[in-house]
Amino acid sequence: MTIAIAHLGPTGTNAETAALAYASWLTKKKGQETLLSPYPSIAQTLRSVVHKKVDLAVVPVENSTEGSVAITLDTLWELDRLQIQQELVLPISHALLSHSKSLSQIKTVYSHPQALAQCQKWLEGFLPSVQLIPTNSTTEAVQQISQDPQAGAIAAPRASKLYDVPILAADINDYPDNCTRFWVMGLTPSTSGNRTSIAFSVPANVPGALVKPLQVFAQRGINLSRIESRPTKRSLGEYLFFLDLEASATETSTQEALAELSPYTEVLKIFGSYDVLPISTL
Amino acid sequence: MTIAIAHLGPTGTNAETAALAYASWLTKKKGQETLLSPYPSIAQTLRSVVHKKVDLAVVPVENSTEGSVAITLDTLWELDRLQIQQELVLPISHALLSHSKSLSQIKTVYSHPQALAQCQKWLEGFLPSVQLIPTNSTTEAVQQISQDPQAGAIAAPRASKLYDVPILAADINDYPDNCTRFWVMGLTPSTSGNRTSIAFSVPANVPGALVKPLQVFAQRGINLSRIESRPTKRSLGEYLFFLDLEASATETSTQEALAELSPYTEVLKIFGSYDVLPISTL
């Protein structure tokens, strides 16, 4: 059986690179055939799993420079049924692609807002007066610049070959350890793996409303590798919390902690336990 | 003396609306003359205060639907010296501006990514197959559509008059209570006001690293109205925390809590105490 994997497209995005790496791991490790399906947005990528158009979706969750990907967290909370099958950590290197021969000719730079943000210090240093134009994906940026020698696109080095646009400057991300975490989401319940992710809303905004939930884990020596708040969208000052625990849901202490946590929360969602697979640059 | 106030421009942005409201409040309340200065980015808006080109900067901090404005928090952490003089809460209503006579003619919608995100359900419902094009500000979106009857721009109703483009659909934000918090930043130390905002990094990612700091406030009955994490950008899994406290730095219990907090943090920054000024739609 071929496994269909959705990702944010079109071809050449970092999400596709992560999906390709996961597909090749599935093939090597489990002899599994795979098929990649590009979608125009992260929300549609995730919904394609719930609507059973594909088996899995690979979506970005968090970047080491720019932080959480809000649309991923908000859509996971809303869709309710998706489970994390695997985490992938992909090093992200950005390059400036252009048909120009020198930086001094560049008047405009196109890219996804996350990529522009990850290179903002480089842009301020080397191209202080260019116009920055946001696009829906790094690939769309490369498509935009077509034959214009006064424009550049920030994208993965891989896009240079795919779209035949030379690299004018490589490794232009402001922080060398720039990485993005991706989650492989599916409908199969995830119970094994050394990380567990949950999200919850709290009943009322009272002193200590978040202290109790955090104590439940601290008392058992369970480390939180991340805590992220998102607005409930109902009104200013009401939040959901997303927690990543360094523990498996199969461990008794985790099960006890989750049971003790429940009364301190309004809605509690458990996205499953999973392992982390680091990906070397392809 | 005229007070110069920086904001994200060009004219017609929600940041300008907030700055105008604050300026008119300063004039009414304190007889103060003011002058508004638009800047092309939030980072440049904030830096203009540190470089003493202006006296104050009005910047968005958090939206009730889309959450924190990452670039504002990151720039405040980096610049180090700015203090919150005042908080403004502005109701945000989005409209679809277009020269078209009906929704069925619209092929493309331009707007700032935050505005596109705040209207995504409306867009999926009423314009499911249009192309969404991100811009640097809602005003830039209105400028982009010029005379194209097949394009629309999501912007403030105010931009309709300023740029002479009709409103095709009003109040298209997905959540009716859509509000944005703005901070007025300056170099004057802020000590009075019933809210206090701080940010800190923690020495190591160990179980309970965040529990201790939160307990310091919970034990004294000090409510946190917000907790937000941002990556340190050094490596994946290292965070800064931004906290808003419902307390004044002039109260003894707040001073005690901040003193007790210090050893649990690596770097602790106090952005001052301030009051909240709600703004009715202008």
Automatic annotation (TrEMBL), chains A, B:
Q: GO terms for biological process?
A: L-phenylalanine biosynthetic process
- One Pfam entry for this protein is ACT
Which keywords label this protein?
Amino-acid biosynthesis, Aromatic amino acid biosynthesis, Lyase, Phenylalanine biosynthesis
Recorded GO cellular component terms are: cytoplasm
Checking PROSITE patterns in the record gives:
ACT, PREPHENATE_DEHYDR_1, PREPHENATE_DEHYDR_2, PREPHENATE_DEHYDR_3
Q: Where is this site: Essential for prephenate dehydratase activity?
A: 180
The chain positions of domain Prephenate dehydratase read 4-187
Q: What is its EC number?
A: 4.2.1.51
Domain of life, per the record? Bacteria
* The protein's name: Prephenate dehydratase
Instruction: Tell me the ranges covered by the ACT domain, including all copies.
Output: 198-275
Pathway participation: Amino-acid biosynthesis; L-phenylalanine biosynthesis; phenylpyruvate from prephenate: step 1/1
User: What's the catalysed reaction?
Assistant: prephenate + H(+) = 3-phenylpyruvate + CO2 + H2O
Which molecular-function annotations from GO does this UniProt entry contain? prephenate dehydratase activity
Quick one: signal sequence residues? none
List the PANTHER family. PREPHENATE DEHYDRATASE P PROTEIN (PTHR21022), PREPHENATE DEHYDRATASE-RELATED (PTHR21022:SF19)
